[in-house]
Specification:
Blueprint (H helix, E strand, L loop, with lengths): L1 H20 L10 H26 L22 H30 L4 H26 L4 H30 L12 H23 L24 H25 L5 H27 L3 H31 L3
Helix pairs in contact: 2-3, 2-5, 2-9, 3-4, 4-5, 5-6, 5-9, 6-7, 6-9, 7-8, 8-9
Length: about 325
């Protein structure tokens, strides 16, 4: 009787504690479809920002003088600049619903995942602001400060969506991964500081750009004072910030590559280094031989890849820091 009672008590105890033991996995996991939606929103947002910079670099902003149509029609005329401008608008038409769907699904299917829930939600008002800025850019033009706010908002949207996709990818592979970011680890601090310096470099280009200058487009500096841009200290300050950012990027890559067994960080670090090298090489060519539309497009594309990879590294480093990995 005593043995049976002991076994019964043990079984009852095991049943009572079973839900508690399973509690860590009770947090809603990220399904493959949810992860793929976040990735699609990330890719679409990156294309949107890239095309916005391409519109700037190719002087295509005025190719469709009305909005949302082009010369009052739903299909643009067969002219390269009109097609570039209208392609940018079509990508925006696709990207906005993807970001909204990411936020909706985060609240509906991943309520316990704070990053998956809140980051795309915060991105929505910035996305709407960028759309409004785009309309005013076509209809009335944007003052220098408002244009800087436009680019800054676009980069914030891309940052939030990229961070969401990165967190979703990590949490799909490991449901026990943290759902918050931390800056406690040195790598997390370095990646966040690098991203901040690059952000200031990109947005600062608009603040110092002269009329029609390529400096106003999303890119790295051409590493010299340009007579067509704002004279005096503004260009000098931007160049100093650019030099700081240019020094931090390879330092961050080196820090990541010195860590062994970190595939999740090594791959974006290698892509970051490659994109950064392309941006620097194109900048040198443009400085010595002059700018062409092709070089300008390559320059802005490399700048977007640099930004995305920085956010991926910063997000992964922040998740590691939250887990307690140094």
């Amino acid at each position: 009787m005593t043995t049976e009672k002991s076994l019964s008590t043990s079984t009852t105890s095991d049943r009572a504690t079973a839900p508690r033991a399973a509690q860590p996995s009770a947090r809603s996991s990220i399904t493959r479809r949810h992860r793929n939606l976040l990735l699609a929103a990330n890719i679409s947002t990156a294309l949107l920002v890239t095309m916005g910079a391409v519109v700037c670099a190719t002087e295509s902003g005025a190719a469709c003088p009305d909005w949302p149509g082009c010369f009052g029609r739903a299909i643009p005329p067969p002219q390269i600049h009109s097609i570039i401008e209208y392609t940018h608008r079509l990508i925006a038409l696709i990207t906005t619903p993807l970001i909204v769907a990411s936020a909706y699904l985060g609240w509906r299917r991943a309520r316990s995942q704070r990053l998956i829930r809140w980051l795309p939600t915060i991105a929505i008002p910035f996305t709407l602001a960028v759309a409004a800025f785009g309309a005013f850019a076509v209809l009335t033009g944007l003052a220098r400060g408002v244009a800087a706010l436009d680019l800054g908002s676009a980069l914030i949207v891309l940052m939030l969506v990229t961070a969401t996709a990165t967190a979703g990818w990590v949490q799909h592979a490991d449901p026990t991964a943290p759902d918050r970011l931390s800056l406690r680890a040195p790598l997390a601090k370095l990646s966040a500081g690098t991203a901040l310096a690059v952000y200031a470099t990109y947005v600062g280009g608009i603040l110092v750009a002269g009329a029609g200058s390529l400096t106003r487009c999303l890119s790295w500096p051409i590493w010299r004072v340009l007579p067509v841009d704002v004279p005096g200290w503004p260009q000098t300050v931007r160049l100093i910030v650019g030099v700081l950012a240019a020094a931090l990027v390879p330092a961050l890559v080196a820090r990541v590559l010195m860590r062994r067994g970190e595939r999740g960080l090594r791959t974006p670090a290698i892509v970051l280094l490659a994109a950064f090298a392309v941006a620097m090489l194109v900048g040198v060519i443009m400085m010595t031989s002059g700018a062409t539309p092709f070089l300008a497009v390559v320059n802005v594309a490399a700048a977007v890849v640099v930004w995305c990879m920085l956010v991926v590294i910063a997000t992964r480093a922040g998740l590691e820091a939250a887990r307690g990995v140094a």
